[in-house]
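Anyone opening a protein record will find just a pair of labelled lines. With that in mind, the following record should read easily:
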Amino acid sequence: MTQMPRNHVGVALTSVALACGLLGAGCARGEAHTDLVGEQLYAACEHCHGVGGEGKVELSAPKLAGLPAWYLTRQLQRFKDGTRGKHPDDEKGLRMRAMARQMMSDREVEAVVAYVAAMPDVEVIPTLPAPDPAAGGADYAACAVCHGEKGEGNESIMAPRIARLNDWYVASQIRKYREGIRGGAEGDDVGATMREMANKAVAPERIDNLAAYIQRLPG
């Protein structure tokens, strides 16, 4: 297999390290080589998102394994253009926005997204204190209209798969939507819809129950 020049690998790895796991290398030398580049570059992201994309709650890094390529690509673009992660109270989003803006080209993004999207899904450990997943099922009825009864998602309406996501991450994003930290940027129509639903579909004291239910969905 043809190897990339050493200096090219070094530059690419530096850029990807800044993006903490969601960058790729721009090299059009064939599908097999692109896969290798994605794997090489993801090695710089393992500290935050884990070797298998399982995420790390202690670093507030969500699970990536199991997410579709279209959603991963879209979120990187939204972080980069400020549609997501620009709110002054979104500490984690601001950090990810700065990282995403280090990306170089669409081809690079495609390479690493393809690698991440091909990761086998992994189980995640419940983290929320004493939730009631069964109670969360009642609130999920409103979510199922877009995200599906099994949380499988629907690309045609930009509703991502949410099944088996980290419960802590789901809960944190619902709260961000409710508080206008996420979904309030100009031009973010999908986010605005989520913000409205987050305020209508679930009361603050039931958010953890809903998040626990979503984590247990089969997808």
